[in-house]
Amino acid sequence: MPSWQDFQPFIITGLALGGVYALSGVGMVVLYRATGVLNLAFGAVGAMGALIAWEIANNTSWPDGVAYVVCVAFGGVVTLLYGVLFGPPLAARDPLVKATATLGLALILLGAMSWIWSDKARSMVLPTTNWSYDLGPVLVNWTQILGLLLGIVVTVGTGAFLRFTSLGTAMRALANDREITATLGVPVRRVEAAAWLGSGLISGAAGLLLSNLVGLDASTLTFLVISSLAAALIARLESITVTLIAGIVIGLVNALVTPFLSISQYRDMAPFVLAIVALLFLSRHRVVTVSRGAH
Question: What is the pTM of this model?
Answer without folding.
Answer: 0.89
